[in-house]
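Interim report to the steering committee. The following record documents the input for Aminotransferase (376 residues).
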Amino acid sequence: MQNELLLMMPGPVPMPERVRNAMSRQAINHRGKEFGGVYADCVRVLKALFGTENDLFVLSGSGTAGMEAAIANVGLDQTIVSLVNGKFGERLAEISGRYGTSVAIESEWGHPYDLEVLAEALENGAGIVTMVHNETSAGILNPAAEVGRLARKHDALFVMDGITSIGGEHVACDEWGADIAIVGSQKCLAAPAGLSAVSVSERAWERLSEKRPYYLDLKAYRKAGSKDPMETPYTPAVPLFFAFREACLIAEEEGIENRIARHRKLADAVRAAAKEWGLPLLPVSDNLHSPSNTVTAIQYPDGVSDGDLRGSLKKMGIEIAGGQDRLKGKIFRIGTMGATGPSEVLATVAAVQGTLKRLGYSFDGDGVSAATEVLV
């Protein structure tokens, strides 16, 4: 990987060699037994990572395609309540407005949801609730179990964006009552961008919209997926499936609990460094909301610009993320997802620490030592 940029972002992330090599093989018949086996391997591992026994399908389309599939298949002419405390919650609300009546319950980005307002909206007849489990734009982990409980209490469907949590955070879709859940390939699973996976509960099947999209019709995916060998209804991105299968097998070999623990430890190390630098995290925690374990959002100190910090790191071969939209220039984000390990985190922490000092920000602590203490 010499001369390659180290991506320490909340996706895309560095891909293991096995994953990269899987894309270089010859094409195969995507209606044959071999592809069916590839697809079946993906589904088997993903169901464990989702924490579900529901139907699950892999779509040739990014996480946003998965989001749109979720809404478009059940949301036509429905009142859809979207919980928004970051960029991707906002995106779900925007997609919802294309198909039904969108009601956004907004908090400041990185701040907790107001679940009392959600309960009121559900009491007034909303039929669908959407939420982003892990809002990477603000580095906050949102309370899926509590939102699912409220949705089920009022007989509403619960659509959960797990695009950046599944494979890196504890996820229990069936236990939480997530009727439709989504993951993206290039996030915690460390596969190439361009695929998403969607799980669908029996409750969601019972409430399918009569008019559904053509390419993203989940009923068509269910029919094709029930064949032996498994198929997709339309031509899949076969090289990406090869890579995704390898990424899933790597996750299976590591073990789900080990994988979750690794992500948490890496994030703890970044948080420990930020504390030594005297820089607050963006997300506001309470007893239901906590900082993400797949990305850490850190507030900039006065006098340090986004361009200077991230630009300097990129010259050193490390790319971290900045803030999006209204958070642009206010935060920087360090990803700890996918195949990332202690060496990548320590290299990033050291580069950030040195750059902050060079840019004139003074602090007494040693973030590198603090991160090392967490990782050893």
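The CA atoms of residues 262 and 341 lie 8 Å apart. The committee is asked to note this result when reviewing the revised timeline.
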